[in-house]
Amino acid sequence: MAYAAQYDSTSVEKFAIPSFTFQSGETIPIHVTYRSFNSTSPKKVCIPTCYGGLVNETLAFTHEGGVLASYHVVVVAMLGNGESSSPSNTHGFPKKLDYRDQVHAQHELLTTHLGISQLDAILGFSMGGQQAYYWACMYPDFLKHSIVICSSARTSGHNYAFLAGAIAALENSIDYADGQYRAKGLTPSRGIEAFGRAYCAWLTSTAWYREQQYKKLGFNNVVAYVEELSKTMLAGWDAEDVLILAKMWQAGDIGVFADGNAAKALANIKCKVLVMPSRTDQYFPPEDSEIEVQSLQHGELAVMETVWGHIAGGGANEDDTKWMNDRIASFLSS
Predict the structure, then answer these.
(1) In what order do the strands lie in the sheet with 272-276?
(2) Rounded to whole angstroms, what are the CA distances from 225 to 49, 177, 312?
(3) Which of 167, 186, 237, 302 has the most crowded CB, counting CB atoms within 10 A?
(4) Degrees (nearest 5) of the Cα angle 173, 179, 180?
């Protein structure tokens, strides 16, 4: 793990799966990294990580006063994030990942290792939210609720295009060396920073920049903010881990469960679904969520009124986190 020196391993565990078959056809041994909170509680929730997220950086709502403080919460690292099996740490890892791989591995962890037969909820932010949608399609009788935060059932064309720019910035960097950086003994730090620079403007919103909200984070001006975020957003990540997850995100589409028809796949979801977009999210806009909820049998839409854009859903702003906490509490009690 490239970021081991700064890595928070508190209560993090690993579950080995001796033989795991990916959607792409490869079968190899893998491990799934996770953290379990309050394991004796009969109420169960699973939270997959988001893009760039690690287990102990994930907003789990288990803090004092948190809606999930009394639940058994399992935070699971995505395959490909450098904690669970990934290109950076697993020999023979596939060149391509699919959201179905994530859900199958998580299901194996929950059932075989942790003995969980049903979830009260699956909760996810960003790519975690896409996993929550896939869970609802793949294991409809395993969960009662799905909570989708700043995410979508299908990656939009606009979202795909945004990611394509960041991917190109990394893949065309001199120290990525056309993917041969390991063989040449290089660390593609310039490529990772270029990816972050292309990515960072999309995290919040135009209003956030206009209001100079970056000053609340300790930056005197936008130049300082961009410089620092570009360097730190994915600091220590392996380039192939960054890329394999970005490309899985681009391909996200629950239409795979309904002959390419995402609306039909949404209509087939049995559980209750809470969809919580941010009003100012630049790549999962609330308009897309409004359309998705129209197809759900038991869908609820709750829009966060915030200037913090996408990262509002990950806990970047205390007021937004409290709003989400209260809204989730209401949803789970209904």
Answers:
(1) 12-21, 27-37, 72-76, 44-48, 119-125, 143-149, 272-276, 299-301
(2) 25, 28, 17
(3) 237
(4) 105
Under 8 Å between Cβ of 27 and 105: no
Residue found by looking up tokens 């491990």 in the block: 31
Pull the structure tokens for residue 34. Answer: 């996770």
Any bridge partners for residue 48, and if so which? 76
> In angstroms, how far is the first alpha carbon of the chain from the final one?
42
DSSP state of 225: H
If you count them, how many residues does the chain have? Answer: 334
Assigned token pair, 263: 């609306």
Amino acid making up residue 295? S
Nearest to 277 by CA among 156, 103, 161, 164: 156
What residues have CB less than 8 Å from 75, skipping those under 6 apart?
34, 35, 37, 47, 48, 49, 55, 58, 60
Mean pLDDT by 10 residues, the chain (334 residues): 70 98 98 98 98 97 97 98 98 98 98 98 98 98 98 98 97 97 96 95 97 96 96 95 98 98 98 98 97 98 98 98 98 93
> The tokens 């991917």 sit on which residue?
167
* Residue 109 DSSP one-character state: I
Q: Which residues of 44-60 are buried (b: 16+ CB within 10 A; e: fewer)?
A: bbbbbbbbbbbbbebbb
Quickly tell me which residue has 């589409």 as its tokens: 253
- Residues 6 or more apart from 286 whose CB is under 8 A from it? 277, 278, 279, 303
Buried b (16+ CB within 10 A) or exposed e, 303-312: ebebbbbbbb
The DSSP-derived string for 132-164 is: HHHHHHH-TTTEEEEEEES--SB--HHHHHHHH
pTM: 0.97
